[in-house]
From TrEMBL:
<dbReference type="InterPro" id="IPR025359">
    <property type="entry name" value="SduA_C"/>
</dbReference>
<feature type="domain" description="Shedu protein SduA C-terminal">
    <location>
        <begin position="85"/>
        <end position="255"/>
    </location>
</feature>
<protein>
    <submittedName>
        <fullName>DUF4263 domain-containing protein</fullName>
    </submittedName>
</protein>
<dbReference type="Pfam" id="PF14082">
    <property type="entry name" value="SduA_C"/>
</dbReference>
Length: 267
């Protein structure tokens, strides 16, 4: 589940010195209390100071607009490869650490702007493994987005506009996750404990089961699949969101979202 080669739960001496220098400067230059200079911390210190150092999504990276656009275009080119499957897409994201593609899904929600984390291949006990789990904090606390990637190019919708085999496979997976979470969500505390900073305790949202804080996403197909029988397809999409807290996305949505968060102050 660790995202990076570097272990951000530890800082070297140089990073500690620079971090302390910036923290000291936070105390100066104002009559109204401490100035928050989090963005000026060394990158490692930004990670280190968060709840999950090795799963933190660094907001400062969003300011590198050339990098974000480059990632989005690489992703679009990858999707154009013939016969590409979901495992190849997962490998592309994970091997290149292009996590911003998945993190862009926060665009659909009103949390993630105060704190944002990503866990890949997140286990639900010994029964299931989630492709990605996004954890974001908003004004109402932390919420959770469980994400399943499916095929980008096979049997996405049937001719009537109803869901085809690919989306239905993803929805069956999510139904299993939902049942598991209803019965066992509290057991995830042990998993989160292994990832958290040893200097912070888990907030209440991680140790109580509140289904309203859990959201689900299935990504499958391309924009063209959604446009074939647009009226029915988008009605099905709205119904899943309204009735089951499930977002049905296509891969071009992720490309669009990634471009939209470029230059933002937060997710």
């Amino acid at each position: 589940m660790k995202l990076y080669e570097r272990d951000y739960s530890k800082l070297n001496e140089e990073e500690i010195i620079e971090w302390n220098r910036v923290k000291e400067s936070e105390k100066k230059g104002t009559l109204f209390g401490r100035i928050n200079k989090f963005r000026e911390y060394p990158k490692a210190a930004r990670h280190y100071s968060t709840l999950f150092p090795n799963n933190y999504l660094d907001i400062q990276e969003l300011k590198d607009e050339n990098y974000i656009r480059g990632v989005a275009n690489e992703f679009l080119n990858k999707l154009e490869e013939p016969n590409i499957n979901e495992q190849q897409i997962l490998d592309f994201i994970n091997n290149n650490q292009h996590y911003v593609i998945i993190a862009s899904i926060f665009k659909l929600y009103n949390f993630g702007h105060h704190d944002a984390y990503l866990f890949k291949e997140f286990p639900l006990g010994t029964s299931y493994r989630v492709d990605y789990l996004l954890v974001g904090k908003g004004s109402g606390g932390y919420e959770f987005i469980f994400i399943e990637l499916e095929k980008s190019n096979k049997r996405i919708f049937i001719k009537s506009g109803d869901l085809g085999d690919t989306f239905n496979k993803g929805l069956r997976q999510i139904s299993s996750w939902k049942r598991w979470c209803e019965n066992h969500f509290l057991s995830l505390r042990e998993t989160f404990d292994k990832c958290r900073s040893k200097h912070q305790d888990l907030p209440a949202e991680f140790i109580s089961s509140d289904s309203t804080r859990r959201h689900y996403v299935v990504v499958a197909g391309r924009r063209t699949d959604f446009e074939k029988n647009k009226e029915t397809t988008y009605a099905v999409r709205r119904e899943k969101k309204r009735d089951e807290a499930i977002e049905l996305l296509h891969y071009d949505n992720l490309y669009d979202f990634t471009l939209k968060i470029s230059g933002n102050n937060s997710y």
